[in-house]
Amino acid sequence: MAKINKIPYIRVGTEYYKFVEQVLFSGDITIKLKLWKLPTIKQDELPELVREIPKYDDFTIVPDHLNYKQVINNLYNRYEPFEHIPVPGDCEKTIAFIRHIFGEQFELGLDYLKILLEKPVQHLPVLCLVSTERNTGKTTFLNWLKAIFKGNMTVNTNEDFRSRFNVDWANKLIIGIDEVLLEKKEDSERIKNLSTAKIYKAEAKGVDKVEIPFFGKFILCSNNTDNFIKIDSDETRYWIREIPPLRNDNINLLSEMIVEIPAFLNYLINREYSTSNRSRMWFTPDQIRTEALVKVIRGNQTSLEKELRIIIKEAMLNYDLIEIQFTAGDLCELVKGTMRASVSHVSETIRTKFGITNIPKPSTYKQYYFESLPVTNSETVCSRTKKGRYYTFTLDMLED
Fold first, then answer.
1. Is residue 324 assigned to a domain?
2. 342-363 in b/e burial notation, b at 16+ Cβ within 10 A?
3. Residues 371-380: tens digit of each pLDDT
4. Is 398 left (phi over 0), alpha (psi -120 to 50) or beta?
5. Does 319 reside within a domain?
6. 106 near 281, Cβ under 8 Å?
7. Among candidates 196, 192, 283, 285, which has minimal Cα distance to 230?
């Protein structure tokens, strides 16, 4: 937050605020607006200064990095000014680091960063950097982005995100969560909904909720590569990358990249996009799909879902089918050798995990079932005609 003149106060609506300098743990200084009572200002300052305090009708939040305006139609912009000035120069270390983070999706990674800089209100996928190993650069990536976007980015804990008091991050461009472990379904749903939200209600302690524009982009970092968050098999909003360890243990890497920020910004601005806007989150699901995403989806599968996928796929491959029919009762019988599951549990799993419903009225279909072979003491899959309210599965449904 920058002062627009030498007077350390502003009036917004009927409230007075003071620009207060705060020294961060890093040694950096940030400026915050704090409510300040008019009697206190009159007590501390000369009458001439009080009369000159700038007055604005209200706050607004308009993110912009390259054409920033502090005041728009007499509204005071709470989005903080962009501090860096792009200049030509060398950014070799930064480019190498981005290539390390995004790997084979390097060009997509550069597009992601260019969108953050040039199109801050554009929705983007939830970027997740995961690794079980140390010294991969995940935290360095967050700290580097923080150095670029300063007060327009925040790094939260799991508890910060879950708290209903969200005013400290609801108006930020980037919301990073380090060491993330959001294992509850409602955590995933909240992030998923916010990733495409345009409006959000900010809430502070003792203050009523206020509806504000929301343009936040989530970046999650975790040492858990399997199930750090709940993700359904049909989810398209997560971009998950498994990050390998850095080849060189350069303890000065972050400071060296911070020096290169002006040159890197110049590089980004002059670079053409490798992709075009093809979805509400810019990238298509196919563009950002990775093996790391598939791994998390598998890690979130219940034992019943995994068993159903194996059994149904096995039957289709054995009979060379492109689709197959089962009732919930059929599948209960097929899984009972490995687990206990009720018809209602199977039905619910099919509805939520496969996204299909059974036919409304009983109809004839080919039933597949296990039949014991007494000589070899093994089982084989057999078929017969039957009538029932079946589900139809295809091979596409069974892919993770």
1. yes
2. eeeebbebbeebbeeebeeeee
3. 765 555 556 6
4. alpha
5. yes
6. no
7. 192
Residues making up the chain, counted from first to last: 400
Question: What is residue 349's predicted lDDT score, i.e. its pLDDT?
Answer: 86
The residues facing 370 across adjacent strands are 381
In a shared domain, residues 48 and 134: no
AA identity, residue 331: L
The reported pTM is 0.78
| Residue 82 counted as domain residue | no
**Boundary residue ending a domain (299, 321, 343):** 299
Residues 96 and 70 in one domain: no
Question: pLDDT for 18-75, tens place per residue?
Answer: 998 877 655 566 778 889 999 999 999 888 899 999 999 999 999 999 999 999 999 9
Residues 115 and 241 in one domain: yes
Residue with tokens 């909240």: 190
Q: How many domains does the chain have?
A: 3
How confident is the model at residue 244, as a pLDDT?
94
| Residue 202 near residue 210, CB atoms below 8 Å | yes
Q: Which residues of the chain have pLDDT under 50?
A: 3-4
106 and 229 assigned to the same domain: yes
Structural domain containing residue 223: 92-299
273 and 374 in a common domain: no
